[in-house]
Amino acid sequence: MRRNYRYRRDSGPNRATCRMLVLSGPMATMEGARGASRTSAGEQSRARRSSSPKTSPDRELALRLYRQMVLTRAFDERALSLQRQGRLGLFPPCQGQEAAQVGAGLALEERDWLFPTYRDHGAQIAKEMDLEAMLLVWRGHPDGGYIPEPHRVVNVNVPIGTQVPQAAGFAYALKARGEQAVVMTFFGDGASSQGDVHEGMNFAGVFKLPVVFVCVNNQWAISVPVTSQTAATNLADRARGYGFDGVIVDGNDALAVYEVARGAVEKARAGGGPTLIEAKTYRVGQHATADDPARYRTSDVVEPWLERDPIKIHRAVLAEQGWWNDEQDAALLAEARELAARAGEAATSRPIPDPGVLLEHVYGNDSQTQARHRRALAALPRTGSRH
Length: 387
Prior knowledge:
The chain is an alpha/beta fold. It folds into 2 domains: 2-349, Rossmann fold, CATH 3.40.50.970; 356-387, no CATH class. The protein is built from 13 helices and 9 strands. It has a 7-stranded mixed sheet with strand order 2-1-8-9-5-4-3, with helices on both faces. It has a two-stranded antiparallel sheet with strand order 6-7. Residues 1-54 have low confidence and may be disordered.
């Protein structure tokens, strides 16, 4: 069953009130969720927290969300710069999607597992992933290809949708072993058309697995708009066919995303099965650094979404509560940029590995073909350049 979280905006400051359009099922007990189901930036009015105890945000949570969104933006900007310098091979920016990623990622506990897509830098940061390790992935360095056990973040998937059945299978194993951990996986509106995504969610529904599916609907599958991707109004409606809850949330509202994701994680941990969360947002930048979005959309479509920047929205919430000021903001931004810069320097300064590592962990024993390839790789010129 789908749940849709929408704010009704009343007149006057700080007068938004929350209404759940469907009040039944496991998700109906959640209070204070904020969000909207409309996909147009103009229609999604900027909702603010009520000052009532029921809907006032938790101060420490709100500040943590903001800090990690700012760090995600700083990381994004640094990685784009490094790619333009030729120091990263490719990079998929996440500008405008920080709330959907960080809000959902922070709902996980240390014991939980994350199966991200290639764009979910904010979700990885929410799981306290090392920034240098995240950059090494896009540098093609083998040290970026390992699963850091303390963080429980699985390697990013570039093939579209393949992480979804992997996450479902992992959740099956956790349930079989009696572990009280939850799996969260992300995918986009484009990936929702993949058979892997359908199979993963169907499997999770049949076995009532402890997994949360987060569809970040940024309305573009590279150059294909979501209106050409599906005739459905809401991707979360598909959850009904798999036998579990679907939730729509404003993907530009970090607090709303966190509350919905937290409820889904708690439900999964308690044995209530999966949830599909559709976080509606917009990809304001490129699909990846090889993409030119000006070839398939105009700037006037993007500009309203730039006004709905999730970091600006969240900063306004903090300022309204009296928890944040310009001096703190400047200090945080400087710190975040410094952390991103240090990670970038460390990642691009790491020694270039021996090309022979490409052939490691492929077969148990070297074949004659592999030996020939190994000799060919060893003969390649090494410039010694860190770029």
